[in-house]
Every structure is written in C-alpha cells, then in structure tokens.
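Treating backbone geometry as a discrete language has practical consequences that deserve illustration. In the encoding step, the backbone of a single protein was reduced to a row of integers, each denoting a local shape. The amino acid sequence and the backbone structure tokens for this protein are reproduced below.
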Amino acid sequence: MRKEFVLYLGILAMACGKDSPKPPEAALLSFPLQNSECTTGVSLNNNTSQVEFRWQEARYADTYELKVTNVLTGLSITNAPTTALSSFVPVLKGTPYKWRITTRNTETQEIGFSEEWFFYNAGTQTTYPPFPAQLIEPASGTPVVRDLNNEITLKWTSGDADNDIQSYEVYLDTDPDPQQLVASPSVSITQVKASVAIDTVYYWKVLTLDRAGNISDSGVYSFRVIR
C-alpha cells in the first residue's frame, strides 16, 4: 500500500510540474505609426501605393495575421498568417486606415490582439481630416448606471495626422440618429457628463473638428440606462 501511495505522489508531482500551454502575447506595432501620415509607400498607380506594415515579435506566438481596414468604407484586407514580422499591402492614396495584428500558436486556442493604430496613406492632400473619434465609454450595447446626479460619463479618444484638432461636438439622443448636441468641448477634453433617464436606450456620437474645417464622425454607439 505504501509503495502505491508513493507512486501516486510521483505521478501527481509530474502532472503538476508540466507547464500549461502559454497563450500568445499581443504584438507591438511598429509602422505605420499611430495617427500619422505614411509617406514611405511605393506608388503602384495614380490611386494606390504599397505600404510595408511592421511589428515586433510577440512571446509564444507562432504566426501573425495582419488586418488593414479602410476607415471610410469599412472594407478590410486580411493577410494569411505568417511567421514574418512585416507584410506589404496595397492601399489607396490619401485614405485613412486602421490596422492590427492577431497572434496565434499551435498549443492553445487562445489568440492575442495588438492595439489598433490609425494612419493616412499619403496622397496629394496638404491637409487631412481628423481620424474618427473612438468611443470608449459606455461601450456599445452595454447597461449603464447613473451617478448620484442622474448623469453618466461619455468618454472617447481621438487622433489627427496634422495635429490640428480644434474641438468636438458630442451628440446624445433617444433617436438612433442622434441630433441633440450636449457638449462642444475643446481639444483638451475627451469626456463629458450628460443627464439621462432611467430605463431608456440612448444613442451617442462624437464629431471631431480641425482648424482647417475638416470634420470626422465617430459613428453611433448605443447603451441602456438600467438605474
């Protein structure tokens, strides 16, 4: 009996000592830079240039998948998984894009996602509209609880290749196409308070305005106030 018990402990120790599969970590993006104008692409024709996307090696990652999305149309290009740390993609000139890297390995079903970076592919423009604001809070479709003043906080982030954002316009409404302007903060402010009613679905968006008169639209998010 004692020998069987010792054998059981040995097997248990071996099982506990075996390393669990490690999920791939997120890749760190290198180029094109966040909120930049990419001027290094190789011109293919009047409308398109080929841009090299680069990222850093991620721990426990076997392959990397590049996804590049046209911000104006929502159309994406997704490259086949690769072991390389760069990839060339043809993109339209004078057009805003966002890109990210998905990491995978053969040991686990878990995947890693990099940050999502925005850039303008250089064209003939001398000025670019701001990148659409990224709505952070409340996340779309989430339940929201009011504070003691019956208000909630709307938060967003933004960027601009020209670095000339002037202000924002924040719209909040019960209509899916929000038209009620609730705040017009300056460039240094990226969150505002707004009064809301209980058990109500709201829709919100942010317009970003720059000093050249360009405007970008974040698109609409929704949330429900539950109490």
Notes: The chain has two domains: 29-121, 131-225. The longest strand covers residues 200-210.
